[in-house]
Structures are given as C-alpha cells and as structure tokens.
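Re-running Acyl-CoA thioesterase-2 to confirm reproducibility after the cluster update. Everything else is unchanged from the original entry.
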Amino acid sequence: MVAPSWIAQLLQFDREGDDFCIREPGRSSAERLFGGLIAAQSLAAAGATVDDGKLPQSLHTYFIRGGRYDADVEFHVERIRDGRAFATRQVTATQDGKVILEMIASFHHPEPGLDWCPDTSPALEFDAAVPKAPVMDFGDLFDLRTMPTDDSTFAVSPFWIRTRAEIEDDPLIQACTLTFMSDFGPVPAALPPTVKLRADLGFAASLDHSIWFHRPFRPHDWHRYELRSVNHNDSRGLTHGALYDAAGSPIASVSQEALWRIE
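Result of re-run:
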C-alpha cells in the first residue's frame, strides 16, 4: 500500500458531521501557522461536504489571527447552498475557541464551453531561472527556481515551483496543494517595487487571500508563479497574479492583501 503524500497527511481530519479537527499540526517550529496550510485544510474540509463531481472554483479567505502548531485546529463547515452546478460553503477555523480563519469556497461541476486565455510573455523563462535552496517554512517540500538576483530568504516572484514528491491524482487534494503553495509569494510581492526586500524590514502578515481555479493542476510539474504589486497604503499592500503551466496557460489566479509595518 502506497503511503499518503505529505499534503494528504496534512489533510487528515477527525470528523463528526460537518465539524472537522486537525490534531496539533506541529510539523514546523515557526511561531505562527503558515497561512497556506490552514487555507488548504479549510478547503479540504469544505470539499469533504460537497457531492462528487463538483471541483473547487474559487475561495476567499480572511486570516483573522495567527494560529499555532502546538494546538488542535477545529473547522466548522456551513452548507450555504447546493445547486445543480454550484455548491457554496463557509468554513470557520478555530483554535482554543478563537477564530483564526474564515473562508467562503465555491465548487462547480465542470461544463463544456469556451477555453480561452490571453497570450502573455513570461517574466522569467525557465532556462533563465536558477535553483534555490529551501529558505522558508515547508520549503523543503518543493523545488524552486528563481531569478539569479534573488538572494532573499523568501521566494520572490517571478519564480518556478513544483512539488518534490508526487501528489495523489485527486482534484481536491491537488487544489489543496495549489492553495498551500500559492501563499509562498504574495507577501514580498505586496511591497512597492521601490522598496528593497530584507529580512529585518518589519512585521508582515497575510490579511486575506483569494484564488480562482481555472484549469487542472499537476503539482509535480513545473509552474511559473508571477505576482505584481498593484497598491500600497495604510500599511497594506495588494498583489495580483497567476500560476501558469509550462505552456503559458493560467492554472489559477491569486490575489492577496498583506500587512506591512515597515520599521
């Protein structure tokens, strides 16, 4: 019997009805739960209540307060609507009785129709990117190729990324993997282009995170992640971007606002 992948293991819940629990996610020594992790787990909980055949269409997440790795996380799923083509879920994640995340997720049964996207020139060609050693929380689970000038302790967009291990051929688990990895790049990308990124720049945290899932995702294939800063004021930076496959088709669009208290 093949052992579950690392992401499948992180998505293993205790379940009672529409209430789910992750027992002490404690893989990391970081002070705060990685936002991509808790978002991926919330999407998995929502998806577990949806009829087979409906796949993640979009999610909109608010990170309410920082979570910890040494305490259980509970997820309550509210079934907002079940239609023939779409299903909508609301997920509330709590830890020690306090809300740490709210998510609205939509699921859609695939339908025949047009398939179009604009032609875009890559901001970083794969052959021009260089391997980067893991420098971030959970970074050892991924292969990264970044700009030769990226000497930061982050993954600075644009970059190429893939999982090191194969992931189950399950659309929900693959969407959860995309959700997990989509949180690697937005915080540094939310800075104005005029601000040089450095480790002691100040306090940063994800405030909210949205994903629109466009096309099937194969986590072990190389994908290009491009993000751009579109606004920064009131200690908040907004970034938009997309994850592209090797052929240049957008797999998912991403938007995040990050808090930056620059010292």
